[in-house]
């Protein structure tokens, strides 16, 4: 439900709620009627996903579900989340998915060409440790 | 009796193919379980927003592929590039580069556009020749000369428009 990309929406405050300023009336600009829902911080979001992929007995379905959901968000995952996901692939003996994940995050970066090299740079130790080749190494980024 | 029915069904369906047996009707306790059609099972598809599809692309592995899968359980550093690519191709049909590749469809679209514009042009020309009658006599140059002279005599738009461009002294258009 909550995303790393923080979004703010206003909602009508009813007089029943313990809110000092009822909305709909002239409120000074300094005070806004924001939702009282707790917004997840980026660190909390990252930590949640790292934990998800770190499950020791994660199964293939959970990996797929997690990855597809993560790619559905309007963000490129942090290297630590990807590290966790790649290790999950290792536990599941799934090299193909590991390569696919790298392709997916490169695609996810869209026009921002500097994100993917940064991710690979950060993931280099993990890639070497697990023996994962990048799509570029295998020539899969070309047609 | 239940057994013999099942045997008959599977034997008959064995001609259709291996897949069909898994979708054959399972009769138990007199009630049937709903037949599972292919379209109701998880399908493979290449999409950017769904990087890891529900099923592998290759469902039936050859012996070579099966041994490769066994090797995958060990260290990945021992796999050659070809083996890694082979493993990728077992799980996935197209790479991201391949699935995002543009088609050459736009050439057909432009060609189609030009063709139909051309056809329309031919139709218009044909119409001009065979459908429409002659233009009114008021378009003849003789008529037009008299018309322009009449407009100048009437001093049409003498300030900034028509007659303003005519030099009445020298009886010619202003340069």
From TrEMBL, chain A:
Region Disordered, residue ranges = 1-25
Domain of life of the native organism: Eukaryota
Q: Which keywords does the record carry? A: Acetylation, Heme, Iron, Membrane, Metal-binding, Mitochondrion, Mitochondrion inner membrane, Phosphoprotein, Transit peptide, Ubl conjugation
Kindly list the GO CC terms recorded for this protein.
Answer: mitochondrial inner membrane; respiratory chain complex IV
Q: Name one GO biological process term.
A: mitochondrial electron transport, cytochrome c to oxygen
Task: Write down the membrane topology.
Answer: Peripheral membrane protein
One of the entry's Gene Ontology molecular-function terms is: metal ion binding
Q: SUPFAM superfamilies from the entry?
A: Cytochrome c oxidase subunit E
Query: InterPro entries attached here?
Result: Cyt_c_oxidase_su5A/6 (IPR003204), Cyt_c_oxidase_su5A/6_sf (IPR036545)
Q: Where is the composition biased (Polar residues)?
A: 12-25
- Name its pathway: Energy metabolism; oxidative phosphorylation
Self-association state and partner proteins as the record states = Component of the cytochrome c oxidase (complex IV, CIV), a multisubunit enzyme composed of a catalytic core of 3 subunits and several supernumerary subunits. The complex exists as a monomer or a dimer and forms supercomplexes (SCs) in the inner mitochondrial membrane with ubiquinol-cytochrome c oxidoreductase (cytochrome b-c1 complex, complex III, CIII).
Q: What is this protein called?
A: Cytochrome c oxidase subunit 5A, mitochondrial
**What is the protein's species of origin?**
Hucho hucho
UniProtKB/TrEMBL annotation, chain B:
Q: What does this protein do?
A: Component of the cytochrome c oxidase, the last enzyme in the mitochondrial electron transport chain which drives oxidative phosphorylation.
Any Gene Ontology CC annotation: mitochondrial inner membrane
The text of the family note is: Belongs to the cytochrome c oxidase IV family.
Listed Pfam families = COX4
Topology in the lipid bilayer is annotated as:
Single-pass membrane protein
Cell compartments where the protein resides: Mitochondrion inner membrane
Instruction: Cite the annotated pathway.
Output: Energy metabolism; oxidative phosphorylation
Please give the start and end residues of each transmembrane region: 109-127
What organism, scientifically named, is this protein from? Answer: Hucho hucho
Q: What is this protein called?
A: Cytochrome c oxidase subunit 4
Give any single GO term for biological process. Answer: mitochondrial electron transport, cytochrome c to oxygen
Q: Subunit comment for this entry?
A: Component of the cytochrome c oxidase (complex IV, CIV), a multisubunit enzyme composed of 14 subunits. The complex is composed of a catalytic core of 3 subunits MT-CO1, MT-CO2 and MT-CO3, encoded in the mitochondrial DNA, and 11 supernumerary subunits COX4I, COX5A, COX5B, COX6A, COX6B, COX6C, COX7A, COX7B, COX7C, COX8 and NDUFA4, which are encoded in the nuclear genome.
Entries under PANTHER family matching the protein: CYTOCHROME C OXIDASE SUBUNIT 4 ISOFORM 1, MITOCHONDRIAL, CYTOCHROME C OXIDASE SUBUNIT IV
Q: Which keywords does UniProt give here?
A: Membrane, Mitochondrion, Mitochondrion inner membrane, Transmembrane, Transmembrane helix
